Description:
This protein is of the alpha+beta class and 348 residues long.
Amino acid sequence: xxxxxxxxxxxxxxxxxxxxxxxxxxxxxxxxxxxxxxxxxxxxxxxxxxxxxxxxxxxxxxxxxxxxxxxxxxxxxxxxxxxxxxxxxxxxxxxxxxxxxxxxxxxxxxxxxxxxxxxxxxxxxxxxxxxxxxxxxxxxxxxxxxxxxxxxxxxxxxxxxxxxxxxxxxxxxxxxxxxxxxxxxxxxxxxxxxxxxxxxxxxxxxxxxxxxxxxxxxxxxxxxxxxxxxxxxxxxxxxxxxxxxxxxxxxxxxxxxxxxxxxxxxxxxxxxxxxxxxxxxxxxxxxxxxxxxxxxxxxxxxxxxxxxxxxxxxxxxxxxxxxxxxxxxxxxxxxxxxxxxxxxxxxx
Length: 348
Ligand SMILES: Nc1ncnc2c1ncn2[C@@H]1O[C@H](COP(=O)(O)OP(=O)(O)O)[C@@H](O)[C@H]1O
Ligand SMILES: [Mg+2]
């Protein structure tokens, strides 16, 4: 079942924290809401769940206007960062909670609790209390509890951010599996972690202070971001100010060849090229600069090279003989690996 925000605005004490959000999550789709802290992601989720009341605009679930429905009538499963399990209830009682509140018959409750625990790999833990579980297991129970009511949509608010890195990637795989097993359930997944968004989501909606900045598939946003904010939030990006020319752009007195896609010669623009697409050595588009920083990252070295007062990052395959600090180096990139974005302050 799909979710639709139709020009949804939410304000607290006159402060608009969600500004005319228009966004559609298709039935069965996983949509990530990605953005920095305070950008309005949780508020958007709470508007769907019924905990934040829009000042204007409507929220639809499967075509039905639910804006005036109380939360418990919306058929939504919600999982938050802090698990929010009842400490005095056993795992099975926690999972049964929503069903009991809905006065579901006993046999049905037992069946659904078993099913939800099975789905989340927690079948063997039914009689434990939350304090007897690890963080990852508690979050699985929270997900089981959300699934037990057979929600039409599943809302997840930074569900992995309380877990350590290793657990997180395991849980990420679990969520992807869950989505394959419940292909009809739409998911709206709030995160500030671009890896989670890129890994899990069919599409990503990028938020920046109360506003939607861009929405597209991970590939679209990565390869052709609409603006510098989106470019820097979805994957690392080099963002440098350039002037558009007939053949491409000029930067630091160097002519760069690239697709200007209709930009007007003479206009200012921001050049975006991903660090892994910048190589060390001669190539079609050359940038000469000074090495300011080198980071070894296992499989790659990241070079920070100062070119005419701007820092350009290059991720190159681990170098046998890396350049030294202060060395002059030549970087290069292919014309098709760069895109021109509207001029503006980069967030690189
Ligand atoms: N209940 C509330 N009362 C007042 N301000 C709030 C409330 N909830 C959130 N805000 C404010 O709304 C803005 C967006 O918050 P939130 O949606 O939680 O952002 P995010 O989830 O992206 O971090 C923040 O500036 C936050 O301080
Ligand atoms: Mg939040």
